[in-house]
Amino acid sequence: MAFHSPLRAIGLVGAVYAGYGYFLFGLGAYLISMLLAIFGVSKAIQPLFFFKERIGWGLVLLLSFCALAERQPWFFRSWDGGGIGEGPGGWFGRALSQAFVPFGTVGATVVLLALYVTSLIFATGLHPVDFLQKTALALTALLQKKRKKNSHQLDGLSRIKIRRKVLEKQANKPEKGPRRHLTQETSILLPPGTPLQQDPRVIDTSVPISPLISSRGKRIDDGSVCLVSKDCYVLPPVDLLDPPIRGTPTGPIALQDTQRIILQVLRQFSIEARSGEITKGPAITRYEIYPAEGIRVDRILSLEKDIARATRAEDIRILAPIPGRDTIGIEITNAERVKVTLRELLETQAWTQSKASLPIALGKDIYGNTLLADLAKMPHLLLAGTTGSGKSVCISTIIASLIFHYSPKNLRFIMIDPKVVELQSFNPLPHLITPVVTNPKHALTTLRWLVGVMENRYRIFAACGVRNIQGFNAHSRNKLSEGSNYKSCQNLDSTRMDTLETAHAFQKNGGGTREHLEYIVVIIDELADLMQTASSEVESVIIRIAQMARAAGIHLIISTQTPRVEVLTGLIKANIPSRIAFQVASRIDSRVILDESGAERLLGQGDMLYLSASSSRLLRAQGA
């Protein structure tokens, strides 16, 4: 075999390689060297680059290139095969091109070109869409950097002159009212081209929402609660609560790097997917991916531990798919969790414009939306969670939400706390019908008394011709006195049921005054302690209240630390469809409270799964 003199310059080994390369692959001999160089550099830069899975596609790329070079009639026709008599595709190209003769010249070229492009994508991992997106982002960042650099060329003296002119111009204007601080003057000095928002693919919802309502007047540092009459009650101002807590923001580059690692792990197991939105919440970050066609979601679910290992995450949760979307979500715990405060929720537009009868603020979902609920539509709520999961804090948040919205004239509480720990701090509230009940036997008596209040209210509704508490309170006092067969009863100003006579009077009026009925919210902090006293009697009373008390304006909030079948019976769960599950001990406990697993994987400290009565899907949120 004869070789040209330029080939002999690279030695005997190079000459032999060139000769056989030209003979077998033609122009493809150059492609072999390029592929080996690309794979070597990629392996050095990215340790997760998987060579074994790409070598097959590299072989297809090489052979399709040889056949394409041999079959197409436009280029490299003068190729002499390095003096060995073969065409531009070599021996393999000539042999493979014979199989495409029935397609014709143009048809064979199109088919081979499509095969070449496809194998190029899978062999190198360079997806055209991702490549164009990254190129566009790089160009955008380069332009912004250049604009920022040009804006900084303005020296300090010119900035001072501009600022002085602005201040002189505003100082010469006549004042038409109280002097205000110039809070917008800094916007004049913003350099042109300053970006107003971040990359739309990364959504950071952990930042506290700006308040939409102002302070309600001056704050009273020392005051007292009016217990003589419920009419003098003043709703507490929002500024009594702690202000929102701002955490350290995470840059979009770090979040995008984590998403690339997730995609690399999927490609390691022959699962092709492309990136979607990244949503950073207060406690977790959700990475969305679009799997390729033909990929079963069960395959991605089975890689949960592998993804957790690669991302070094404390815990992950895969939603396959995300309800209401065509993507798969991978939720990873944030390194720094941001607390959601009640004040932040009460200052949002969703709360101030809410038309709910009994609005309660629960927290924020993964997308940063304020999670509100209407207790009147629930109409009862069941909570479960271990110690430290955030269950007691959630109960306190619900109580505070109602207190900030209703006076004792419109809302009353009955609190049952057998543990004598959580609800004792609410004893001074004027909203309480009776002091916090701590004895389980007295709790059963209180629930039986509440059943009597409920039945009396329904008798009053029937006599007045109304269906529920909203219809009763909507009628005027004159219409009620004309249409009712009952005698007018005395208005009750007592705020407590400390004596038996007050209790009987409260029950006689249906749990309120003749002209107005209050909502009654019953809070049971630990159901397991009550069930140990008299399980059958407690269960029957709770079921009766849950079945009938909605229209009467009586609502239950029941919590338990041990969601066992003996505590949360089937009848109790059937009549309380709204559930909130915090972190529980096992998958069995999660199935008891939610009828499905998932709560055992929560993070604690307010991380919860919410199941509303109007929806069958779980909603993950961070409690306030």
Comma- or semicolon-separated keywords:
624 residues, nine-stranded mixed beta sheet, five-stranded mixed beta sheet, alpha/beta, 21 helices
Provide the helix percentage.
Answer: 40-55%
Stretches with pLDDT under 50, minimum 5 residues: 174-200, 212-229, 483-505
Report how far apart the termini are.
Answer: 81 Å
Biggest sheet strand line-up: 7-6-14-13-12-8-11-10-9
Question: Largest beta sheet, briefly?
Answer: 9 strands, mixed
Tell me the number of helical segments per DSSP (H or I, 4 or more residues long): 21
Total beta strand runs? 14
Describe this structure in words.
The chain is α/β, with parallel strands linked by helices. It has helices at residues 5-8, 11-25, 28-45, 55-71, 90-97, 104-124, 128-151, 156-171, 252-268, 297-301, 304-311, 342-346, 349-352, 391-403, 440-464, 469-474, 477-483, 500-508, 527-548, 570-575, 587-594, and strands at 202-204, 273-280, 284-291, 316-319, 328-333, 359-365, 370-374, 381-384, 411-416, 519-524, 554-560, 578-581, 607-611, 619-623. Strands 7-6-14-13-12-8-11-10-9 form a 9-stranded mixed β-sheet. The chain has a 5-stranded mixed β-sheet with strand order 1-2-3-5-4. Helix 3 (28-45) runs antiparallel to helix 4 (55-71), helix 4 packs across helix 5 and helix 4 (55-71) runs antiparallel to helix 6.
